[in-house]
Amino acid sequence: MSFLDWADALPDGWEAKPLRSIADYVVSNVDKVPAENEIPVRLCNYTDVYNNEFITLAIDFMHATATADEVAKFGLCVDDVIITKDSESWDDIGVPALVRETAGDLVCGYHLALFRPFKQRMDGAFLFRCLQAKPIRVQLELTANGVTRFGIPKSEIGTMTLPVPPMAEQRAIAEYLNRETARLACTILSIWATCAIRQRPRHIRR
Predict the structure, then answer these.
(1) Which residue among 54, 59, 131, 188 is least enclosed by CB atoms within 10 Å?
(2) Predicted confidence (pLDDT) per residue in 1-25, tens digit
């Protein structure tokens, strides 16, 4: 069975397209080493993406420096999607985060790839949810190479196949998934809190 079997069962009006046809993408080379002749920036690093579904200004970003060209090329915009490009484990490849808030000094850091959807073809939130789906992300995992550290070749990123519904459907799907994941997160938190209270000694509960 092919990992692209889903592409043959898409609903009417949907298409299967390579990433390069629906988004610009770049691989960041901005490192953590500050330089005196560069511009001070906040760096969105690997752990910021790996540990957060959404990139917002509430995250405590690392302070670093970058050249003017790097700021222009790798500066983050709302609705950008960032993925982990390199990892010590192949199954940590392609973990996505959606940029919901940004600032002029917020830059994508090393070991990450930055996707910027074409506004008329792909919704950023829908792209983010697609990349969370294992049947989609496995394409990146299979292209990763390495021995002690794995990485996705830039040439392979643009060939990744994605489902592309009409824009109205993309937005509706993304909004539905946002609502449902938020609801599930609240339910899980409530269950956790209830269990924590029940497990406390009686004299502490009073």
Answers:
(1) 188
(2) 466 888 889 999 999 999 999 999 9
